[in-house]
């Protein structure tokens, strides 16, 4: 299993970085849409739609809806688009609600476990703002001629999440004793969370000193701390839905890693929350 995880990571990480820096925003957007469509296909089972046809239709609706939306967007002015900024506000509210659902699980499941519509809505407010956040960050500076600024910001958020995940795994294995959310994900510990924050903090420090970006926002560190914490709950939220649905992995699309949602669950929280906090709550980049 570890061998497959390493091989898959060695293949996927360079492809992600190439897409970030080599594809123009519109083409990059369609890659993100393809990922979101697969995420929607996997989310269908979280909503109780286990039939092959039901899952395919759900994934196609997500992908087609986002593709149609992208065709109406001006990539140079996404932060001025009310639908885009509105979806980021939705993300900020949703992830506060998701935290509450996780910390009160399984009692909170009584509110949504019997409703396919509500569970599908949870998928919408997870996947659609993820697309918005990816595109808003990717297009930062693009209209002004700095075509890689947004790529660096997206890479920064991804590095934060990857560092937090790796640090949490390492510290949890070495020192983990106190369970963080035993009813949702028994393997996660408070020691692991602390380790994730430490490793993510190191990444943030290195980025602030060695990235090619200038005039970094003064609120970058507190925003980064919030994003790392919320990324943990992105993972826990998916674990909560999988546990309630009786699903171990979201799918088997990625050898050694499970499904698409298993790989992007933390990012679905981190990306829109980072974009929303930087662009809507604070003063921007």
UniProtKB/TrEMBL annotation:
Keyword Lyase (UniProt): no
Q: How does it sit in the membrane?
A: Multi-pass membrane protein
Compartment(s) = Cell membrane
- GO annotations of cellular component type: plasma membrane
Main localization (coarse): membrane
Q: Name the EC number(s).
A: 2.7.7.41
Q: Which residues cross the membrane?
A: 6-39, 46-70, 82-104, 116-133, 153-172, 193-213, 219-236, 267-284
What are the recorded Gene Ontology BP terms?
A: CDP-diacylglycerol biosynthetic process
Coiled coil (residue ranges): none
Q: Report which reactions are catalysed by this protein.
A: a 1,2-diacyl-sn-glycero-3-phosphate + CTP + H(+) = a CDP-1,2-diacyl-sn-glycerol + diphosphate
Q: What keywords does the record list, in alphabetical order? A: Cell membrane, Lipid biosynthesis, Lipid metabolism, Membrane, Nucleotidyltransferase, Phospholipid biosynthesis, Phospholipid metabolism, Transferase, Transmembrane, Transmembrane helix
| One Pfam family recorded for the sequence | CTP_transf_1
GO MF annotations for this entry? Answer: phosphatidate cytidylyltransferase activity
**Hey, which pathway is this one from?**
Phospholipid metabolism; CDP-diacylglycerol biosynthesis; CDP-diacylglycerol from sn-glycerol 3-phosphate: step 3/3; Lipid metabolism
Under PANTHER family, the record lists: PHOSPHATIDATE CYTIDYLYLTRANSFERASE (PTHR46382:SF1)
Family (UniProt): Belongs to the CDS family.
Protein name as annotated: Phosphatidate cytidylyltransferase
Source species, please? Answer: Morganella psychrotolerans
